TrEMBL record:
<keyword id="KW-0694">RNA-binding</keyword>
<dbReference type="InterPro" id="IPR050080">
    <property type="entry name" value="RNase_PH"/>
</dbReference>
<keyword id="KW-0808">Transferase</keyword>
<dbReference type="InterPro" id="IPR018336">
    <property type="entry name" value="RNase_PH_CS"/>
</dbReference>
<comment type="subunit">
    <text>Homohexameric ring arranged as a trimer of dimers.</text>
</comment>
<dbReference type="InterPro" id="IPR036345">
    <property type="entry name" value="ExoRNase_PH_dom2_sf"/>
</dbReference>
<comment type="function">
    <text>Phosphorolytic 3'-5' exoribonuclease that plays an important role in tRNA 3'-end maturation. Removes nucleotide residues following the 3'-CCA terminus of tRNAs; can also add nucleotides to the ends of RNA molecules by using nucleoside diphosphates as substrates, but this may not be physiologically important. Probably plays a role in initiation of 16S rRNA degradation (leading to ribosome degradation) during starvation.</text>
</comment>
<keyword id="KW-0548">Nucleotidyltransferase</keyword>
<feature type="binding site">
    <location>
        <position position="86"/>
    </location>
    <ligand>
        <name>phosphate</name>
    </ligand>
</feature>
<keyword id="KW-0698">rRNA processing</keyword>
<keyword id="KW-0820">tRNA-binding</keyword>
<dbReference type="InterPro" id="IPR027408">
    <property type="entry name" value="PNPase/RNase_PH_dom_sf"/>
</dbReference>
<dbReference type="InterPro" id="IPR015847">
    <property type="entry name" value="ExoRNase_PH_dom2"/>
</dbReference>
<feature type="domain" description="Exoribonuclease phosphorolytic">
    <location>
        <begin position="10"/>
        <end position="140"/>
    </location>
</feature>
<protein>
    <recommendedName>
        <fullName>Ribonuclease PH</fullName>
        <ecNumber>2.7.7.56</ecNumber>
    </recommendedName>
</protein>
<feature type="domain" description="Exoribonuclease phosphorolytic">
    <location>
        <begin position="157"/>
        <end position="224"/>
    </location>
</feature>
<feature type="binding site">
    <location>
        <begin position="124"/>
        <end position="126"/>
    </location>
    <ligand>
        <name>phosphate</name>
    </ligand>
</feature>
Amino acid sequence: MRPSKRDLNEMRAVSIETGFTKHAEGSCLIKMGDTHVLCTASLEPRVPPFIKGSGLGWVTAEYGMLPRATNTRMRREAASGKQGGRTVEIQRLIGRALRAGVDRVALGERQITIDCDVLQADGGTRCAAITGGWVALRLAVNKLMKAGDVKIDPLMDPVSAISCGIYAGQPVLDLDYPEDSEAGVDGNFIMTGSGKLIEVQMSAEGSIFSRDQMNQLMDLAEKGTSELAALQKAACA
């Protein structure tokens, strides 16, 4: 039934290659099917002015897509002089999702910026960015702890994200672009490794959905993020 021939509860193949770039304190290339995102984490000895002097750390994110990440070339946002609304929304989502899994007191007064650059898009780029972004964050924090700059691990639980939706009348896990573009209901679920919810984005796109269907999608999301958390831990081991 699915264009990819996957089972309803089957994710695309996922791989996480750590240490993908030379200079960043943490980096990985995450592939979820044909969606490929480069995630890097950069440490900075400063925080935004609104928390300066508070002793709290900060995690933020930036997101972008290369011009040929999609089937037709997109104009670079830098060429237009400003970021698009979608870009701003996604990078704010990534930042607040990752902060939810951080003990900002333990992190100390420093900032970690997660850069997520989509090299190739086939649906679920924000979910891949969050999942890979946590791996880059984990690697950067590992360096802080190894150097003795952080005494208590500030990362409380892995954070990952997966898309689920109603496609051809059936609840499915991890939508690729052909499914995402035709799904009657589309959702993104951000969860911790222990199964706690951070954020749910759900919308009906051409059809409505029931509470029972919502519960089915939640079950699929819990399965997917549990598998992603295991992959994240293995990648950082």
